[in-house]
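FAQ: What does the model actually see?

It sees only this:
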Amino acid sequence: LDPASNALAQETVMADRWYGEDADGLLQPWHGTVFLNPPYAYPTVEHFIEKLCIEFQDGDVAAVILLTNNNTDTRWWHTAAKTATADCFTQGRINFYKADGSITQPTNGQTFFYFGPDAEAFRSEFSTFGFIMQKINDGD
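And it is asked to produce this:
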């Protein structure tokens, strides 16, 4: 599931199900595995991350890749970081496509967050994109 998407993004993401702006992914059910690159405008980004964390903690979604700006000073970023299993701080910035097909020039880097049971697979796949941080379980 890609709950905050559009047809152009689906050329890359290729989700089985996705919600565009008209469907409002915040109002839709989320199940299974999720890729989320939420709208970065505040407060929308915070609403998507809050829903994501609730859906994950409730067990409605099994695994998630979340892509956001690395705004480490924000409440929403900390909410994601506290709930995620592991994070990847990208080396360099990711360019995105706008709806008209032009490419953005981001002013800061990004974070991939992983929520799920297989942090080692996340580390294996995403370590080529940047630095991985993984939670240590209490008692380990």
